[in-house]
């Protein structure tokens, strides 16, 4: 057991859901939708994956159900944020609180239990272990691969160009025949897909769903988006940085005896400090949070 | 000695030398024109004098003594006030609140709204300005908003008034009113600086003209003793002996765009466009005049597809456009230069090339299966930048870094490169200098000569009459009449614009 | 946490606390106290860890198993799924889980017969209630908490019958959260308006508000899990305690004495795993007759003479 | 005991912290600062009041310490949001998570417990009960009085006019000699004061501080601000509406047996629905969320 390698592994595990949510956040925010709802996509993805796997007995189907659940939540979010003049910030917060309560309600009504779904059976967990590639879950490698993919999509594809244009100036995009509503809905759905995959990872990694499982990772992902100045590579860098920080704090705890509130506060202190230090060219998309059609 | 003076002022932005060793003065009671090409430094100079910018070197002197201006408030306290090209107003607040902000009347922390309204009303009455102090600024038209800007300066007792392109957005009557006010202020001992791209305005009101060229003073002339050619030469130098002629087109061809009884909903249940009918023929530039808010904007938006129509028909070469969305209309041959290029026209954070290909039909070849082919996009940008003389000639620069005039060139390049059948253009030369304006006019004529049609909406009547084959005049959402260039054309348009004259 | 150096001949016991760690004045602190008791009484070598996140539980359990500990405790319901996998990976290590059932050959599940303790406090409520209306505030509407309510109801009804009183009423409220004392207080006010004069809380931090509300209204509150009698002397009538420390210590004793057995061990009134708390704080509230009567009920439950139902007939967990 | 009167009383109690946070949110947002940090002001106010009262033995001093704690947090928030170009949304979220962890850390270090502070003594609770006016805490009456006060300040005072001006167009205000930074800092401090008072109420009502005590009321207050279209009277109306809803749900629970997930989810569903339905003139302050000095 070599410590540096452990740290790399732990960082990758911590990074997987954070990275996916961060990339989702980048896509959504670059299209102009402030995405405070990432936390709810993670929760929906995790709940769907746990319940779906338990129900179908298949990991693939379970993961698909997790993604579908996240997509449904993202679709609701997208419609509220694009078809109405709703405030993005409040819509995101309300969605998070709603889905948090809804997953608990679903736990109670399906599994009659307080905090967590039943665990996946051994057979499933063994299949999960067998599916690992170089010691990591396939979703981890997907998350890493998604970074260049998202960067390339934004920079080099037509949908990417349109997404950026709508995030900056929806009126102009509309006048060129690009539907701003459509672009934003698709961007939020893409965010739902990526972040939902992060939620699937959370559930499959632990082997069950438990309430509040996202644990603020959605909020932290949004911080990564902003700290990374809305760019995929730098935002992903921020996510990896936070993951490393968390992994370090976890490893240190076994050795020394720090009270766990101190490491818990660290990411937010770092966020505030880094945010305050961002100056000059850190400009959000010009139409971020601006409702359409007014 | 009384007067406002700058001595040896230098200002650089990064690599750009906006002003170099500029000296300039305006005496009390004098109206000075400040003219020059786009980017010559006029706005920068005014912003320095009014405290918005600090010079790298040089002094500002008011009535003979040097002043240190740490902000607009300092400038106001020594009697200098500026009216910006883009108004600095708060639409949500009332006229009175906008005017008194920062020096509100009332005891202690109380804001006495009645006193504010009285103060504003008194000041407005004194200068013959027509405003309602309790109106919300956002509900006012451009001309009224400008009066609020003027009031902000006048209430603070300005002795020097700096006006940056104040006529650019105004209809002719409002320009006349503004000039009357300016003359009156001068006669009461106020010094006025007027920035404009329209030389005839300099001849109309100014006593003296100072010409800036690439950040330096290239000359100062007594207006009475100069002519347009002389001032133009000072502005442009030997770059061009005479602006390119924009000759009138030949006989026009078949009807391209037919609009019949088009009606568009407006605010408060009124029709913004009310049963308007018009035709644009091949080879023709049709002007569209009217007081701002008469429905020109909504008409163009309805034709381009950005806004939906309530009733009527629109046909391009016999094909009905109304069922089509924006993309389909563009594919069918409609191009559109919106009035507000920053808000509706360009995405300023994207590069020149990206703006050029944004929304382009897939068959244009930038994209295969949705992936953008970078080289082709870049080449497209390079070509447009060269063909339209965009400066700096960098296709990968973000549009935000271009000057307003150059942004307009990019916008026009995008709309023309799809070889449209009909171009809808709102104020395509607004804010452009002499040369750039002439270039835009020439492009419109080229399009017409190649068999296209142009619908050109504008408020500058001489420009419209100079460029267009005929001018339609809008009033209250309808087409009030048609005027062809010729004697008394301006007067006839002016009459139709204000609701006078027979309806056709 | 700290890793103890193995000493020959000594049993080594590790405890993985649930998220939140020490200082919760409840499960974690009680588990720690039980571990210290075991160290003192049986000389076991101890270690404990406090995972920062639930996702770390499994790694902590693995860690202690790999370090060769003889018995590894998982404290809390939430660790069930992690422990299920860890136990399968380390078949030679013995594990125990508090407050949940894990079905594995090397795991002892230590659960509590909360309905028995709730029966006792329900009986006391019946003896103290003047209005004949008592209440319970639950954190969430889940079967686990149904056991509290059902035991409480049985004790209340039986005791009223014993005293020859007409049937009373038990009103039940759900706060929807274990961390909202403000809501707990408000619900207690609503109960008070209905004439409730004794309220039992099974709602975590939300229960702090229940106790505060009872104090304000001048009625009695009953604490839960840990002994909360000291929180508001005069208001807290008693507490239905779940002795995690007892469960943990008894498991250690079994290990040392070589009779540790996997499977489900339910701690109830008989073995002191659940009960009602009587100390200097609530002594003035409990008359000698009350105490004598509750001791009698305790004995009857312990002897099996009195059977307390866990759930109403027809309800399954 | 009349039921309607009970309902009014219960509504007023529910409304007190929500109303104060909502008014704080109105002031902050009208000055241009998106205020997601209200939750942290509530927590700081509650913790300060509990700890301060326990330490000094005086309710007045304790309340003052609660307000001071909320003001310190608001000052930090204000500085991050005005002196730097930080994103308001992420700054607010990070602050909430930070203060949540910080209050737990403080509980541990002062009281060696993670859940709740020790309760205030009986003498203090009796003094609190004695201080009631017409059956309600003085803070409840302050909260009700604050509605016209905030409305009047915004509409009829110089600071109010300047606050609105800065929220709409800070550059314009600056050009007339109004310091946008100063106005925003003061607005956020006022939000800290009002919301902190709400936090003080939470702690004194229960008689102790417990972790996560704000329970999402800060987020709900922000929803009230938006639903109330950033206007004091209508936002206060929204807050009273939510309070009535909660009070009704509480009272109904005794009579019928509504599953508790429904009332828990209700406020957020209502928020999303109302938000979506807001059309036309619901326009946020034009410079909301816009950093200063760019
Ligand atoms: N934010 C910026 N970053 C970099 N360069 C800038 C920026 N703003 C302006 N420039 C440079 O300043 C030049 C002129 O800008 P500005 O908009 O002030 O011009 P202008 O004189 O008003 O021109 P026009 O008449 O064309 O509007 C441009 O060439 C541009 O390169
Ligand atoms: N904020 C800025 N950042 C960078 N460069 C600037 C900025 N403002 C002005 N400049 C530079 O200063 C030069 C002068 O610009 P200025 O706006 O004064 O021109 P102008 O004469 O007012 O032009 P126009 O007639 O188009 O209004 C421009 O060429 C531009 O390069
Ligand atoms: Mg200019
Ligand atoms: Mg310009």
TL;DR?
The complex is a heterotetramer, with two copies of chain A (294 residues), one copy of chain B (504 residues) and one copy of chain C (317 residues). Chain A contains twelve helices and no strands.
Q: What would you say this structure looks like, in words?
A:
- The complex is a heterotetramer, with 2 copies of chain A (about 290 residues), 1 copy of chain B (about 500 residues) and 1 copy of chain C (about 325 residues).
- Chain A has one domain (about 5-280): Orthogonal Bundle (ABC transporter involved in vitamin B12 uptake, BtuC).
- The model of chain A has no long low-confidence stretch (mean pLDDT about 85).
- Chain A has about 290 residues and is an all-alpha fold.
- Chain A contains 12 helices and no strands.
- Chain A has helices at about 5-30, 40-55, 60-85, 90-110, 120-130, 140-155, 160-170, 170-175, 180-205, 215-225, 230-255, 260-275.
- In chain B, a hairpin with a 2-residue loop joins strand 1 and strand 2 (about 15-25).
- Chain B is globular.
- Chain B has 17 helices and 22 strands.
- The N and C termini of chain B lie far apart (about 60 Å).
- Chain C is of the alpha/beta class and about 325 residues long.
- Chain C has 9 helices and 12 strands.
- The two termini of chain C are about 35 Å apart.
- At the A-D interface, helix 4, helix 10 and helix 12 of A face helix 3, helix 4, helix 10 and helix 12 of D.
- The structure holds adenosine-5'-triphosphate (2 copies) and magnesium ion (MG) (2 copies).
- One magnesium ion binds next to loops of chain B.
